[in-house]
């Protein structure tokens, strides 16, 4: 690392002492806590997950009081626009379609889409392979949009659910032939758990831009340039001072931020 780079990192690491010292307002964060390991509700009612820890670190940088507001994922954007909360922090991918309605921070992380089916099924995430099959998907996700565009018109029955837990429950109960969702979420919250026994990823990852978009980011209302800048500055700071990497290491054994399938951060 050259001297210039060191100075940049040093400046970012101490940015909260200067840039965010006066930021004490309450910020409301919209979340659907049904998507581990990113966000989930614990038996005692508390929230836990990668997004939860990231938000706490970001709020520390912002020196703001932060509160969670629970919201179903499919209603997340309308609720943000209606000012029910100020920021979406719920594993939402920044896509061109969503950018027509709201703005996004820079990238937090990204993960490809993946099909899950009974082990040995030989199914593939293609319309030809899934023709005549029932595929469960969490409604409002980029995976749902992709499946409806690419598969539903070609003989594949797409079944949408209010949350991911319901998707897995119907798969286990034999009501679905496969599920299609974020690969990281499927691996950690289903395949590595007892109820995921007998199931496996089916076929290759799906890295279509409609799924990966510009990576997962925080959503803000259109025109809220101040909030967007504050969030971007906080992301840069926690990546520069190592906080981001420490949090990521608690949940993942791979680079969730820099996976090669990711695109550049949203503008």
Q: Which term fits the overall shape?
A: globular
For the record, what CATH class of the largest domain applies?
Answer: Alpha Beta
CATH H-level name of the largest domain... which superfamily?
Periplasmic binding protein-like II
Distance linking N and C termini: 27 Å
DSSP strand count: 13
Uncertain runs with pLDDT below 50, 5 residues or more?
1-24, 259-267
Average pLDDT score? 88
Order of strands across the main sheet: 10-9-11-8-12
Largest sheet: 5 strands, mixed
Structural class: alpha/beta
What fraction of the residues are assigned to beta strands by DSSP? 15-25%
The helix-strand sequence is HHEEEEHEHEHEEHEHEHEHEHEHH
Instruction: State the CATH topology of the largest domain.
Output: D-Maltodextrin-Binding Protein, domain 2
Radius of gyration computed on alpha carbons: 19 Å
Count every helix, treating DSSP H or I runs of 4 or more residues as helices: 12
Overall tally of domains: 2
Looking at the chains present, what oligomeric state does this protein adopt?
single chain
Helical content band: 25-40%
Task: Give a written overview of the molecule.
The chain has 267 residues and is α/β, with parallel strands linked by helices. The chain folds into two domains: 147 residues, D-Maltodextrin-Binding Protein, domain 2; 99 residues, D-Maltodextrin-Binding Protein, domain 2, CATH 3.40.190.10. Helix content is 37%, strand content 19%. The strands form four sheets. Strands 10-9-11-8-12 form a five-stranded mixed β-sheet, with helices on both faces. β3 and β4 form a beta hairpin. α1 crosses α11, α3 crosses α11 and α3 runs antiparallel to α12. The longest helix has 16 residues. The protein starts with a helix and ends in a 16-residue tail after the last helix. The N terminus and C terminus are likely disordered. It comes from Burkholderia ambifaria (strain MC40-6). Keywords: Periplasm, Signal, Transport.
